[in-house]
Each structure stands twice: as structure tokens, then as C-alpha cells.
Amino acid sequence: MRWLDALTEKALNRALPSRDEALAVLASGDDELLDVVAAAFRVRREFFGRRVKLNYLVNIKSGLCPEDCFYCSQRLGSAADVLKYTWLKPDEVIASAEAGVAGGAKRVCMVASGRGPTDRDVDRVCGTIASFKDRHPDVEVCACLGLLSGGQAERLRAAGTTAYNHNLNTAEERYGGICTTHGFGDRVETVRAAEAAGLSPCSGLIAGMGESDEDLVDVVFALRELDPDSVPVNFLIPFEGTPLAGEWNLTPQRCLRILAMVRFVHPDAEVRLAGGREVHLRTLQPLALHIVNSIFLGDYLTSEGQEGSADVQMIADAGFTVEGAGERSLPEHRTDLVRIRRRGAGTTLPANTALPADSALPADTTFPASS
Ligand code: SF4
User: Fold this and answer.
1) Which residues of 285-322 are buried (b: 16+ CB within 10 A; e: fewer)?
2) Most informative mutation of 70, 74, 144, 164 for ligand 1 (most atoms within 8 A of CB)
3) Is the CB of 98 under 6 A from ligand 1?
4) 132-146: pLDDT as tens digits
């Protein structure tokens, strides 16, 4: 398996594989599956050891979305019988988030349905996040509120938000086939805006929507261009009542190959096994832990996952450990690459001001208050 050895070496050196190498992972046969998993594990172990980061979803506004994403049970016109409610009260959000923290979650992901927040929505979420961070300063908070407009990312950051999630979902060329109310470019813009505001970018994909291997490689390479810190990999749950109902075309083996391909293209990013893991990986879930270094604990936005205690047991049974609050998630070299923005919106410096490497600022630079 010389091709696999060469691919592994590249990943260990954080070098981008070729498209053909990524396609070869997806095309590998069942006889090669454990070799592929073992190779991906070498990369995972190099950057993340045997740690598994737990994330906990809180659906702070559910259903009734005006957008038409074909894969989503909350879309316009969805006949899926999912929970529908408007913004939860801050106390309800915090109580739910605390249940996740008690279960071992290091990151809480606060997610709202909708095209994107109004400024008033952002005020509301910022207030909730600030209250939560007062009580749990060590817990990371990721916001996922849809497309962001001017200044919203900066306000979320100032309230204590750690990260922002907005997935690319599928290849740019296929985007019109899974959503007509916004485009791939809109999503890219929001991920960039979040990163520019100092939020840790989180962006991933959904597999199993009828895409080809080439499409999967396209979106995973597009993500590499954005270089998110975390890459959630969802496997489509084809809800009855959505246009993609009946798209049951994933096998556990295919899921493992997809995860391995993502790991080789994003060797030192947090690759997170997200929605659909229980229904598509089924009994092979523990093998996936050899590839990913992060999972969601318990339930998803509109569907139930396995019990959180079963997740924790599975991690222990497979010989992995839950990552603690004090432990570094990303390898040091990644955080060293990040420079917190000190110019542009929210400062007195123009956006493209060249700053010295040590970030020493001109004496007259001013910043707004952080709350
Ligand atoms: S993915 Fe988000 S924007 Fe698209 S329909 Fe679902 S809730 Fe709305």
C-alpha cells in the first residue's frame, strides 16, 4: 500500500494531498479498509493523541426557517414533525448547556434556525453567551446563527463567543441542487467574516446527499482553503417530509472512508463526527474514533443521538480519553498561527494596516469597550 504510506507522510507533514490521492481513499476496497483507518489513526495520534473532545448542541430556536435547504428538517415547507419554537429564554439555554457540561462537554454549540440573525437577535444571543461564560469561563461557546452581516461577528466575539460554525455542506457546483435561497459564496463569506473577527472558524460538510466522490473531494478541498479550526462531518439523516427523504445511500464503510479522506486533507484540524453517526456508522462507531478527535455528545438539533453515557462508555471501551477543560484541543502550531485582529472594524486602524510581527500597535490606536 505504497500510495497510503505516501499519503500518510504528507499528512504528518501537514502537506496538501493531491486530488487523486484523496479520491483513492474514497475508492479503496473493503479489504483495505482497516489499513486506511490505521493510516488515518497515525495522523490523528500525531496531532491529537487519544483524546476525544465532546461538544454539546443546544437548539436555541427550532424550525420555521424561511430558507429551503433540501437536507434540513427545519426548512421552509418541511413536513418533518420536528420541534418548533422561537428563541429560548437565556435561563433555558443556560440550563440546557449546563446539562452538556455536566456530561463532559468542553464546547457548547448554540444553534438557531433561520437565514441569519437580526441585530436584535445578536443582542439576545450575546447576553445569553455572556451570562453563560460568567458561570463557565473555561467552557468554549460556539454560535451557529446562519449568515452574518456587518459587525455581528465582532459583537459575538466581544460577548465571549469562542467559535462560529457555518458549514459549506457540499461542492460549490452542486450547491444550487441543495438550496435555492442562498449560495455557496454567501457561506464562504460568513466563515471568513467570523475568522476575521477573531472567532475560531468551524465549517464542514454533509455527506450522503447523492454526491459523487469528486464532489466530496471538491468540498473538502474548498474547506482546506478556508482552513477552519474544526471540520464537522455530518452524514445525511434523510428526514421524511424533506426533499432528500429516501436518500439512504451510505454504508458504515463508506462513512469511514469519507472521514479518513477528511483527516488526510485536514490533518491537524479538529475533525468532528457530527449528525448521523449512530444511524450510518452503527456498530462501527468505535472505529471512527481512530480517525476523528471530536464528537457531539447526546442529541442533535432535531433528532436524538445515543445517550451521552453510552458515548462516554464507547470512548473508554475503544481506549480513548475524554479531553478535559484544561487540555489544549488544537496542536500548538495552529494556535501560534492565529493573530488576534487588531485593525479594521472596531479599531481606529484601517483594515489592511501592516502591523509588526510582535503586534506592537501605534500609540494612538483605540478599541471599543468589550461589552
Ligand atoms: S440549514 Fe439552517 S438555513 Fe438551511 S433550512 Fe435549515 S435552519 Fe434554515
Assistant:
1) bebbbbbbbbbbbbbbbbeebeebeebbebbeeeebeb
2) 74
3) no
4) 999 999 999 999 999
